[in-house]
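Researcher: Let's walk through a ligand-bound prediction step by step. First, I give you the protein sequence. Second, the SMILES string for zinc ion. Third, you return the three-dimensional complex as C-alpha cells. Ready?
Model: Ready.
Researcher: Here are steps one and two:
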Amino acid sequence: MQHDTKKYRQIFESKSPEEIEEMNQLNDEEHQRQAESFKTGYEKGICYLCNKPFKTISNNDPCLHWLLRQCRFKKKDFPKIYEKYGYGNIAAFIRWCANQERLLSNINDLEDEKSDRKVLSYTVKWKNIEWTFDCSKNDFEGHKGTSIDYPHYHFQMRIDGRQFINFNDFHVPFTDQDLFVLKNSVEQGDWFKQNFGAIGSGMQEAVSVELVDILEHTTRSDNEDEATYHLSTMIDASDNPITGDEIYEIQQEVERTGKTFAYVAQKKLKERAKVQTVISPADSIPDIASRTEHKRR
Ligand SMILES: [Zn+2]
Ligand SMILES: [Zn+2]
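Model: Step three, the predicted complex:
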C-alpha cells in the first residue's frame, strides 16, 4: 500500500494546537496504561499481553513473550509471532524488557553507528539474548523481480552468543501500520519520529539529552558494565596548576555525593581552569550485529 507522507504531514499541520495537544495526550495515556501493566506483570514473570507466565508456550496463542526464550520456543515458531505482531509491536516489547534490566544502554540504536543504506539497524540486549533488526533500502522496497518483492526486514536472535535465528532465515513482512510509521520517519524525519515511549528508549535518546542535564543528573557507576555513558574529562589548568590536594578533594566529593568526577570538577574548578567533558556511549553497550547482504542477479 502506498503512503503519501506529504499528505499526512499536511493533514497534521492543518490541525489546531489544541487538537494536537489532545491527540498527544490520548497517546500518552494509552502508553502509560500499557507501560504500567507491562511492568506489574514483568516483575512477577507474567506477560501482560496473554496473562501467562513467561515460561509457558501455547501453540494456539502465539505471543511476543516467546522471544524471551523462557519457554520452549523454536526457530520454526517465529513466523507465528510475526504473522500476528508487526515490527512495531515486536520492537516495543523487547525494548521494554531490555530497559527493565538496564536503562537505555541495552539498546544500541545510535544513528551514528547505523549505515545510511539502512532503514533499520539496531541491537537490543536482554540477559543472555541479543536481537537485531536489519532493513536496508532494498528490503524496504522489496527485492524486485523475486518472490520477495514485498517490504520486509531481517531479524537475528542470538542466545549466549550463538545463532538461534539468522538474518537470512526470514523475510519478515512489515504491516501496513509499520509502513506508515517507517515511511513517515524516513521521508519526514524532521517532523516524525517513531517513539517506543519512555520505557522503550535506547542510546539514541540517551545521547540526545543536553550535556548539562547529563552531568547534573547522572551518578557514578563503579561497574563499567552498568554504565550508560562514558565521561572523559580534560582539565586545562596550564596558567594555574592544580594541586594534588585539589584533585583529592574532588575525588572525596565524588565519593560522598555519588556525582560524577566530571560534574564535581566542572563545579569546583570552573573559576580557574578550562574543564572539558566529552560524553560518549559506554563501551559496554551491545554492538550492532551486522548482516552481509548478498547481491542478487
Ligand atoms: Zn505473552
Ligand atoms: Zn531482504
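Researcher: And what stands out?
Model: The CA atoms of residues 72 and 169 lie 19 Å apart. The longest helix spans residues 17-43.
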